[in-house]
Amino acid sequence: MKLITSFIFLLSYLFLIFSKQSKAFVAWLAVVFLLVLQILSPGEAFWAVNWNVIGLFVGTLLVAELFIYSQVPAYLANLLVAKSKNAGLAILAICVLASLISIFVENVATVLIVAPIALALAERLKISPIPALIGIAISSNLQGTATLIGDPPSMILAGFANLNFMDFFVYLGKPSIFFAVELGAIPSFVVLYLIFKKFKEKVVEEPKTAVISWVPTLLLILMIVGLASIAFWPIVIPNAAAIVALLYGLIGLLWFAFHHKQFEPSVAVVKNFDYETLLFLMAIFILVSSLTKVGLLNDLAGYLQSLSFGNPFIAYTLIVWLSVFFSAFIDNVPYVLAMLPVTSILAASLGISPSLLNFGLLIGACLGGNITPIGASANIVACGMLKKRGYHVGFWDFVKIGLPFTIASVLVSYVFLWIVWR
What we know:
The protein is mostly helical. It has one domain. The protein contains 20 helices and 2 strands. Strand 1 (170-171) and strand 2 form a beta hairpin. The radius of gyration is 21 Å and the shape is globular. It starts with a helix and ends with a helix.
């Protein structure tokens, strides 16, 4: 069973990396093989899916879609550009804003919100938009790691380790992943400043974007407060995060229908939902559960323990920097899902807190995607937007910005997590 399961998983992974087929289609095809070969039963497959994570993803994405519609992010971006002394500082301000938005909004959506402002600025000032869009993409990837709702890998970690919204700030009385990311953001934005400071052109103010409605912003704030309050509820409710997120997603859809005085716009939001990522997430949960069932993840944990010579620092270093390397080339969602059971088993065998390895895994996997143009979906989208406008982003053009940015952010986060959680 181990051989067949590992073959199915590796083959599907290769297809995910090299094939242009839908990621969801490839992953579900692998699930079908697992069911047909009776490696998993339908019941096991159903319960392998973390429905709390799925509900959280759906609700958050619905609220984020309405937040984008409201034009509040574009309004804030234009405001920052108008206050900047020159083009370099304006681009840096846009990148910082992108990183802040991506704390609460999915990274690709953040790029789609903010990139048009940077493109318009570059066009007006007759400068290349390539550094700006690369900066926006990698900044959004950086901060998406900081909170429970920023990115799917963070949601996956929360589901696996039973973390609530506040646990990303303080966990077991110690500073958590949020502070590791924010400390790493400081040197990484210094790197961006050094890259952008050559743009000395004066910024020409453009017409301000009008805000359509502040209601989605209020819904986003209330959803965050609701998720944060779960830690203080007097009773434990299963799938509480999913319930809160879906509730605000539903309220948002009802408001959208009321705002337009018809249901068609809300139906359009549901139709245009990111079902590809949703189905992909569900399938990956099932695929990883098959690896756990046949014992492959136990084997991998044992191999990593032997590589680390039983030394916690070596094990932690391997987890972080191998994750950085692999995530520069492969999707971090299946990687994080597959590795979380491994880090927990490894931590238990070494007698250390699983939080150290889990947080190190998340930092390495999420920030490693910033190195190359294919390392994260946000990078691919940014490069695609540039290509449509006649700008070609070479592999090394991206690496020249992404690599120093990643090393700066990961190194500081890596040291911080070791000091706090060893």
